[in-house]
Write a structure and sequence with these properties.
By secondary structure, this protein is mostly helical. It has helices at residues 2-7, 11-23, 61-75, 82-110; strands spanning 37-41, 56-60. The chain has 4 helices and 2 strands; from the N terminus they run ααββαα. Helix 3 (61-75) runs antiparallel to helix 4. The chain is globular, with a radius of gyration of 15 Å. The N and C termini lie far apart (41 Å). Bound molecules: zinc ion (ZN) (2 copies). One zinc ion (ZN) is lined by residues 40-41, 64, 68.
Length: 111
């Protein structure tokens, strides 16, 4: 995993992120937020330098955390096909994000 740490400081990673960011319209691919974006890994190739813009997803902090929480929870029961799991995960991430978006809007009004 330390190879990945090195990789995340490389110019190649910056390029991949830039490419994917452009494709994502410079916003979270789940909710469109433009702050606190991260390049979430959909795939971890054996060699990090094999990574392409297709292997990552631009997510905001909130969607990213929600996704990883969900992932950790799902690890416990591995039943079901991967596609089913992904569908469910996306649906739940969207549901969470909808709720979070309402919260964001409200906090804007308060502040
Ligand atoms: Zn988001
Ligand atoms: Zn991630």
């Amino acid at each position: 995993m330390s190879r990945y740490t090195d990789f995340l400081h490389s110019e190649k990673w910056r390029e991949i992120k830039r490419e994917r960011l452009g494709r994502a319209g410079y916003g979270c691919e789940e909710c469109g937020a433009t702050k606190k974006l991260v390049g979430h890994h959909l795939e971890y190739p054996r060699n990090p330098y094999d990574l392409t813009a297709n292997d990552i997803q631009i997510l905001c902090d909130k969607c990213h955390n929600a996704l990883h929480r969900e992932k950790a929870r799902r690890k416990k029961d591995r039943a079901g096909a991967k596609t089913e799991l992904q569908k469910l995960r996306t649906r739940q991430a969207h549901a969470k994000e909808r709720f979070a978006a309402v919260g964001r809007r409200t906090s804007h009004v308060i502040r």
